[in-house]
Design a protein that fits this description.
The chain is of the alpha/beta class and 276 residues long. It has 10 helices and 8 strands.
Length: 276
């Protein structure tokens, strides 16, 4: 993700499909076609489903109204929230986040902890210790967001991320990797549950074309993050594109790249969660 003054880069996904206004639920779709066999592929079903949210919640939960409450009241169940106190876990912040985390989880969202990996160059033991600290200090954490994930499918990178993925999975955690761009192959999905295949501006997203392996993956394995989508109409267009591009999770914000697109919720958050 983006290298930020206090947070490095942003996040990834998970989902429990949930019907939205204006979209067909899976049960209704099956009733209309008569049988599941009439649906050629999972992708055909996904085309009728709204993406879930993957929120880089790189802001404090404190305030009136509390921004985390605002976030999780509107986000659909099955969405993922990325907790990032300061480029990783901070013990003294655990009490501040405890109640907001419970609130989000009561509303069906998964809260996962941010850890950066420096594209596979950060010491494995250091990353594992950060993961351990999340589980020790934030006991309701449900997974880890591995930011700055490597893209190249080298043996070293594959071994590094497979070890990290297994480390989190042993704790029954969900793992999202964020290279911020699309790798040449699907190798990352052997290590993580989901991967962010695009992170960038709305203007860049308009020209983005997913790789063949992205279109062949299950939608819940793919996430897209878009910033600088200044207009509500642009946000809505990005949501449509995400579904067409097989992304099961998305986050769109009007905030610009600088100083930090994830320092607050987008101004159209209520509209995004209702229409996206």
């Amino acid at each position: 993700m983006l290298a930020m003054p206090t947070q490095r880069r942003p996040p990834r996904p998970a989902r429990i499909p949930r019907a939205r206004a204006g979209r067909l639920s899976l049960s209704l779709l099956l009733a209309l076609v008569g049988s599941a066999g009439a649906i050629a592929t999972l992708g055909a079903v996904q085309a009728f489903a709204a993406p879930l949210e993957l929120v880089p919640a790189y802001f404090s939960p404190e305030g009136t109204p509390g921004p985390w409450r605002t976030m999780c009241e509107a986000a659909p169940p099955g969405s993922s929230v990325i907790l990032n106190p300061d480029n990783g876990p901070v013990k003294r912040e655990a009490k501040v986040y405890a109640e907001p985390m419970r609130f989000c989880e009561e509303h069906g969202q998964r809260v996962i902890g941010y850890v950066f990996t420096d594209y596979g160059k950060r010491r494995l033991a250091t990353v594992e210790q950060a993961i351990t600290d999340y589980y020790s200090w934030y006991p309701t954490i449900e997974g880890i967001f591995l930011d700055e994930m490597a893209e190249n499918p080298t043996k070293k990178n594959e071994a590094y991320y497979e070890k990290l993925g297994a480390f989190v999975h042993e704790k029954d955690g969900f793992v999202i990797g964020n290279p911020g761009d699309t790798a040449t192959t699907a190798w990352q999905l052997a290590a993580v549950n989901a991967v962010v295949t695009f992170e960038g501006s709305a203007s860049a997203y308009a020209a983005y074309a997913p790789a063949a392996w992205v279109l062949a993956a299950r939608p819940q394995q793919i996430a897209n993050i878009i910033f600088a989508a200044s207009e509500t109409s642009r946000m809505e267009a990005d949501c449509v594109k995400a579904s067409e591009d097989n992304a099961g999770s998305i986050y769109v914000t009007n905030l610009p790249e600088r100083p930090n697109p994830y320092q607050a919720l987008p101004s159209y958050w209520a509209t995004e969660t209702a229409r996206c």
